[in-house]
Amino acid sequence: MKETIHIYHTNDLHSHFENWPRIRSFLQKRKQWHEEEKEAVYLFDIGDHVDRSHPFTEGTLGKGNVELLNKVNYDAVTIGNNEGITLDYSSLYTLYDQATFDVTIANLYNKEKEYPKWMEPHLIYETSSGVRIGVIGVTAYFQPFYSSLGWNITDPFLELQAQLDRIRKKTDIIVVLSHLGIHDDEKMAQEFPEIDLILGAHTHHILHAGKEVNQTLLGAAGKFGFYVGHVMIEVDTEDHTIISKTARLYEHHELPETSNEKQEIEQWFELGKTQLQKPVAHLNTALTVDWFRPSPLAQLLSDAILEWCQADCAFLNAGLLLDSLPKGNVTKYDLHQILPHPINPCTVELTGAELKEVLRQTLDPEMPHIQVKGLGFRGKIMGTFLYSNVLFSKENQSLRIGDKDMDPKKTYTVATVDMFTFGHFFPELHRAKKHYFMPEFLRDILEWKLNHRR
Q1: Which of 39, 153, 161, 205 could form a Cys-Cys staple with 34, CB 3.0–4.6 A?
Q2: Closest of 80, 96, 138 to residue 376, by C-alpha
Q3: What are the C-alpha distances in Å from 3 to residues 36, 82, 235, 370?
Q4: Binning pLDDT at 50, 70 and 90, where does residue 379 land?
Q5: Residue 278 neighbours by CB distance under 10 Å
Q6: Are 27 and 13 within 8 A, CB to CB?
């Protein structure tokens, strides 16, 4: 006899709740339908469901996202970097306390180098015919960030090997929930042929009909809830061997509209907004921002990270600030709206010669117009650069750090934002020694500065 196992998967929603009502309705109906037909069905999320750029997620520190997953009756999830490194230690440690689904992550440990009570390195499910399905979760190896927050993260491939050794003889099908990205998923399929299915995330790749690598099926559903994935595994119930594996994606715009979905989407936003209405500062005058010329609010933020990081100098781009702050009370919601990014301040160590080259690049007249995507950035364009404790000489031929001429051989501590250290804009920053200040985001630093202005 044959049994068809249905696996539905989502990934990288990033709190795009405008797509959630249809996804929820579709998954609920599909799960009910398969269960009524006595078919095995499982729902998995592969991480980055949380994104603190949305007020609902910010206001609940991700626990609202967990409630949404609960209502769909997911079976298991793994975490992405947005759950893992944009929440402080305590918030992640308690994030899944009320979850009604399983959470699997093999390569993340707490301060005591143990798994939190809600975390399992692997799971084993059994269908009505006795087919055993092993599920292992792994998440991106962002060691400097996890370490700064107090977590212990380990190499996902080493942990995957350990878990495979534990469950290989206890399972008939092995599924990996991988928040590593497409390249690591392909490598994983080559190195571990015993894995039958890898459900991927992180790099937002789209595999409309899946992708077979070394007889392992890869599935992925893009980002933001634009797709829902569906994998069907046909199994011989006599010897529990796989007969076939197929994958497909359902596009969000093709899913049926739900009743009151617009009102529901607005409600999530308003709930978050209400929770963020706490006043945090008062302005006697407005602080404006301009993306294409120096402005008071952008300069204040640059000065803030200089002071917070206790650096020799600082620079950042005005495009980080999405709007100005008006005169009067400033709330957490106001700061969230102008700085929604999950971006942390950081310091890099550069020689004077390296620093001069980086600053020279920031003066490129084309730089402010660059459209920035990814890297945690939630704005539109780069914007002009602002500097603190840096003075350019006439025609920018030389510069001063503080009250002294820049020494090309001296090492300077430079404060900036973490996205510039990832290698996309400034190679010198990518290679430099770095220190990330966590868990504070830029909006937290600005709040602090507004209350400590001299």
Answers
A1: 39
A2: 80
A3: 15, 36, 5, 52
A4: confident
A5: 8
A6: no
Domains of the chain, each with CATH number or no CATH: 2-271 (3.60.21.10), 278-450 (3.90.780.10)
Contact 68, 225 (CB under 8 A): no
Q: Tell me the pTM.
A: 0.94
Instruction: Concatenate the DSSP letters of all residues of 20-68 into one string.
Output: HHHHHHHHHHHHHHHHHTT-EEEEEE-S----TTSHHHHHHTTHHHHHH
* Torsion angle defined by CA atoms of residues 115, 118, 122 and 126, in that order, rounded to the nearest 10 degrees: 160
Sheet of strand 390-392: strand arrangement: 390-392, 399-401, 404-405
Going by the DSSP 8-state scheme, the letter that residue 86 receives in this structure is: S
- Residue 277: helix, strand or coil by DSSP? coil
Asked if omega into 340 is within 30° of 0 (cis), the reply is: no
Amino acid at 174: I
Instruction: Tell me the per-residue pLDDT of 286-296, one tens digit each, with 9 for 90 and over.
Output: 999 999 999 99
Ordered DSSP codes for 397-427: SSEEETTEE--TTSEEEEEEEGGGGSSSS-H
